[in-house]
Amino acid sequence: MNEKVLLLNQDYTAIATCSLHKAFVLLYLEKAEMIAQDQLNLLRTVRQAYPRPLVIRLHRYVRVPYKGISLTRQNIMRRDRNRCQYCGTSKNLTLDHLLPRSRGGQSTWYNLITACARCNSRKGDRTPEEVAMKPLRKPFKPSLISFLRDSIEDAQHAWMPYLGERVRGYAE
Predict the structure, then answer these.
(1) In DSSP terms, which residues pair with 55 in a beta bridge?
(2) Averaged pLDDT score across all residues of the chain
(3) pTM value surpassing 0.85
C-alpha cells in the first residue's frame, strides 16, 4: 500500500498527497468522499472488497497556511528530477552552489542545483561560466502544484483535472 492518493480540500483544491492507507481511513471514517477510483483494482479484506481511491475530497474545509516548499537536499534533487544538471547522469549525486559559498553564494532555490560528484569536482570553487559548464536547466523555486504534478504516475491520470493547467512540468 505504498501508492499515493491526491487529497483535495472541500473546495476541490489540491492540498497534498497521502498514502492509500490514510485515504482509506479518511473514507471509512466518513471524513472524505471518493472523487476518482481505480477501475481495475480493488482493496480486498478477508470478507469484502472496496474501491481503490485515486482522488479524495475532505468534507470539511481545512485552512492550510502557505509556507512553500522547504529548501532541503531531497527537494532540490526532486526539483531537478534526480539528474546532474551538467551531464544528466543519475549516479553519485550531490548539491552544487552555482555561485560558490566561498564567494558569498547563498543556499537558495536559485543558487543550488543537483550535480554528480564528478561534475561538482570539475567545477570546484568556480562559477559555471568560468569552466564553461552550462546547467541544463535554470534553477527555480518550485510550487506545490509542480511537485504534485511530478508525483503523477500512469495510474494517476485522474489527478490532472485537479492540478490546474497553468503549471506544466517545470516553471521558471
Answers:
(1) 6, 36
(2) 87
(3) no
Q: Is the pLDDT of residue 172 over 70?
A: no
Contact between 53 and 20 under an 8 Å Cβ cutoff? The reply is yes
138 φ, ψ to 5°? -70, 130
CB 85 within 8 A of CB 137: yes
Is the Cβ–Cβ distance between 122 and 59 less than 8 Å? no
List CB contacts of 132: < 8 A, sequence separation 6 or more: none
Residue 69: closest CA among 141, 132, 120: 141
| Single-letter amino acid, residue 147 | F
Cα separation values, 90 from 78, 87, 133, Å: 12, 9, 17
Mean pLDDT lowest for which of 25-34, 69-78, 83-92?
69-78
Full set of structural domains in the chain with CATH? 4-66+143-162 (no CATH), 73-123 (1.10.30.50)
- Residue 32 sits at φ, ψ, to 5 deg, of -145, 165
